[in-house]
Design brief:
Family: Belongs to the HD-ZIP homeobox family. Class I subfamily.
GO molecular function, one term: sequence-specific DNA binding
Keywords: Coiled coil, DNA-binding, Homeobox, Nucleus, Transcription, Transcription regulation
Shape: rod-shaped
Function: Transcription factor.
Number of strands: 0
Structural class: mainly alpha
Protein name: Homeobox-leucine zipper protein
Radius of gyration: 30 Å
Distance between the termini: 43 Å
Number of helices: 7
Length: about 200
Amino acid sequence: MVEVKQQEWTETFPEMEKMMNYKNQEKKKRLTSEQMESLESSFQEEIKLDPQRKMKLSKELGLQPRQIAVWFQNRRARWKTKQLEHLYDSLKHQFNVVSKEKQQLQDEVMKLKAMLKEQGCSSSRMQCYYSEMSGEETETVESTSEAALLCSNMEIKGKNHNQFNIAEGNCFNLEGYNFNNSVPLLPYWPNVPHNYQP
DNA sequence: AGTCTAACCTATTCAAGGG
DNA sequence: CCCTTGAATAGGTTAGACT
C-alpha cells in the first residue's frame, strides 16, 4: 500500500524521486573529532551564533552553514538540560541544609522546654516573660525556619531565570544562612549574552 | 495593523556506535 | 539486539523589516 503510493508520487513528481534518492544516499554522518572540537570551543566563546561566525566555521570545517546552525541549536538544548540538572542539584542541596538546620533548632527547643519543665516553669509563662523583656513578638522556631525557606524560594522565583544566578554560585541574601557550600558548579560556562532568552 | 522572513526553540525521528 | 548519542527534521514562536 505504501509502496504504491510512493511510486505514484515519484512518477508524478520526478524532483521528489531525486530528493528521495538523495535521502537514501546521504545518511546521517557523525562530525569528526576536529570538527567537534572546533565547534565546541566556538560554543564556549559564545553560545549564540552570528551569521559571520557561522560562515567562518562553515568554511573552516567544510560543513554546510545549516549544519553549523543545527549543531549550535542542539548544543544549546544539551547545555540547557545540563543547567537544569545542576540547578536541581543545587536547590536540593540547599533544601537539605535548611532542613537539617530546622531539625537541629527543633531539637534545641525540645531540650529547652524539657529544662523549663524540670524547673517547674511553664513555656507560656516563659514566653510572656520573654516578650516583656524583649518588647517583640515571640516566634516559634518552626515559623522562623519555614519563613527562611519561604524567603529562599521567593528569592529564587524573584530572579530572572535567564541570568542563572543560582547556578553561577551566587549566594542568597538570606540573613544568617550561608549557602556557600552548595554543590560544585560545572567546570566551565560558556559566555551567555545578557539578552539571551532560552 | 498585517504580512513576510529569518532565526530560534522544543519535541521528535532516526542512523550510528557501543556494550 | 537493545540502548544511548547526536545529526537532522517538523512545527510552532518571535522579532524585525516592509508595505
